[in-house]
Amino acid sequence: MDPVPALKEPLNQPLKSVLGPATAKVMAEHLGLHTVGDLLHHYPRRYEERGQLTHLADLPMDEHVTVVAQVADARLHSFASAKAPRGKGQRLEVTITDGSGRLQLVFFGNGVHKPHKDLLPGTRAMFSGKVSVFNRRLQLAHPAYELLQGDSEETVETWAGALIPIYPATAKLESWKIGKAVQTVLPSAQDALDPLPPALREGRGLVPLPEALLKIHRPHTKADVADARARLKWDEAFVLQVALARRRHADSQLPAVPRRPEPDGLLTAFDDRLPFTLTDGQQKVSREIFDDLATEHPMHRLLQGEVGSGKTMVALRAMLAVVDAGGQAAMLAPTEVLAQQHHRSVTEMMGELAEGGMLGGAEHATKVVLLTGSMGAAGRRQALLDLVTGEAGIVIGTHALIEDKVQFHDLGLVVVDEQHRFGVEQRDALRGKGKQPPHLLVMTATPIPRTVAMTVFGDLETSVLDQLPAGRSPIATHVVPAADKPHFLSRAWERVREEVANGHQAYVVCPRIGDDMDEAGEAKRAKKSPEDEAEKRPPLAVLDVADQLAKGSLQGLKVEVLHGRMHPDDKDAVMRRYAAGETDVLVATTVIEVGVNVPNATAMVIMDADRFGVSQLHQLRGRVGRGSAPGLCLLVSEMPEASAARQRLDAVASTLDGFELSRIDLEQRREGDVLGQAQSGTRSSLRVLEVIEDEEVIAEAREEAMSVVTADPELAGLPGLRTALDALVDEEREQYLEKG
């Protein structure tokens, strides 16, 4: 074998050839690290200074933490239990302190002997474990620990330097073990290929990549960390923006059929029928879209708008414009329920204009067909036929639209609803359905801050609808602190009864379903002491809550349930009864988050609201106040007033501005989780880039990327950048395939 390639790219060396097989296996399974390069890019989350301790006072719940602290006292207790009936059970309780707060550690059974010897008062150590609450106090049960004293070569070497790196860790692999593994592979950092063009790096005074890797893992001063982070942020922002710039460049080279609506065609007929005038925002965004549709390159536009801002109306007008110009338009929804709903609302908005080829259809009418996976064979055959012949100008459907069998007569526009459930590859597959690439409009109801839009949808131009249409009512939101003030909760149910008495309807949302399949584990875990029960009870469940309400606070009202595990027909039946006003209160999981439109629903009670994200609460709340009566949203939580969870809820209660809330949401999440699990691909590979704080870096990287790609679309002169790009694209493809 020729050994040269291995020398050339040592960062591709698999970890299992460098570290012990057991460690390599845990790194691959739990942290997704496979090569030396992966490990070098697993950066410390933060650094502890020798003399300075983590604030025990603000430890996150249910997270894996590593703290450096001093033992204040250690006590061994005996107790009787099922396993040790004669009082032979042993429990070691150790209190550690860092000056800001105290934390209890507990060890049980045979596990008490070693810590009892090691953890004497005054000892300093690193402790690692999952924070839980017991008797209303924070504790770590059976934490792993590493003593910070003694002068053995190993410890001094590992903890040398004033800053101790704390790595994102897992229960199977503590931060200090990751640190030791990094120590082993750090020499390879010298050979890292630099993705930044030299002119860019020097022009911005950024340190070379090998130096940055060394400084982030083994900093001597805070300045080292700052230099390293500044450099690594640029790498991430720049490589990602180059990938997006190349995609935009490739898209701009594609030809498309310009689609200009006829002056007195379908669009005009539709506008004449509208019972209201479009908002200024809708008109402005429509103009942007129509300008794009008239060009010879495919439109790629992202339409952001709050729930209820009238996105569907704007999209429908774009679809009608394309049909007017002799083409067809397809709208893709993430679920069957949503596809059916869009189909219903589009045909309702169009009236006889949607009855092309039928008696009673208007002269400019077209056919609007629905295409989903669960359709019967006959209906499906007819729909496919209508598409091939061009009889159907508009088709609305799920991913079934992308299948090979689906042929269009002349596909001119694709509208994708809720983009983040939809990969680039799927967009490409649909594109292939047109004689030339169709225009593309992507809609999302999740307000996305500018930088996230630049990062995640960087290949799309953005339009924003930020005013609500006339006639939409404001929604009042209040936090109901069920634990501190139980009478507030009974008042909440009274409010629901009042809304129903006034002829309106209500939603009650719960975090989980509650059948046995749901969380058999929860029930097992929940059999603990009563104080523990309150802190650790499983999230409230739809079936239980519905049952209690029907027998208790909401007795006499018509209560129904809706959740994701129900049969699609049952779901539809429940929604139809609710929409028809036959049900007073719908107790549901977040299945109602997207797309259910019941203007008569005015109240929503969200149970255990602290278990939902900020943006999710905002989306849910958008389901009420859709008619002319004002909406009311009550966020029920048992969290104490000072907790971070309550601050989140207060933020949601204080503003109806989705963009403001999405910023708060992002600031509260960890790096690397930019848009939660919703986004596919490269997004999760952000390691040091923080999308909100690094707005300038992202904007500058975008400019730089555009000029690099314009000058050299193939990046022929930048081998380091090409390698980094391949790695990014591979990762994106891999993640896409996993999700596919």
What is the element layout, followed by pairings?
Elements: H1 4-8, H2 21-31, H3 36-40, E1 46-49, E2 64-79, E3 89-97, E4 102-108, H4 113-118, E5 124-134, E6 137-141, E7 144-147, H5 153-158, E8 163-166, H6 175-185, H7 198-203, H8 209-217, H9 222-252, H10 266-273, H11 280-293, E9 300-305, H12 311-324, E10 328-332, H13 336-350, E11 367-371, H14 377-389, E12 392-397, E13 411-417, H15 424-431, E14 439-444, H16 450-456, E15 461-465, E16 475-481, H17 486-501, E17 505-509, H18 520-526, H19 530-536, H20 542-551, E18 559-562, H21 568-579, E19 585-588, E20 601-606, H22 614-621, E21 631-637, H23 644-654, H24 658-668, E22 674-677, H25 695-711, H26 719-739
Parallel strand pairs: 4-6, 9-14, 9-15, 10-12, 10-13, 11-12, 13-14, 16-21, 17-19, 17-20, 18-19, 20-21
Antiparallel strand pairs: 1-8, 2-3, 2-5, 3-4, 5-6, 5-7
Helix pairs in contact: 8-9, 9-25, 9-26, 10-12, 11-12, 16-25
Provide a descriptive summary of the structure in words.
The protein has 740 residues and is an alpha/beta fold. 39% of the residues lie in helices and 19% in strands. The chain contains 26 helices and 22 strands. It has a seven-stranded parallel beta sheet with strand order 11-12-10-13-14-9-15, sandwiched between helices. The longest helix has 31 residues, at 222-252.
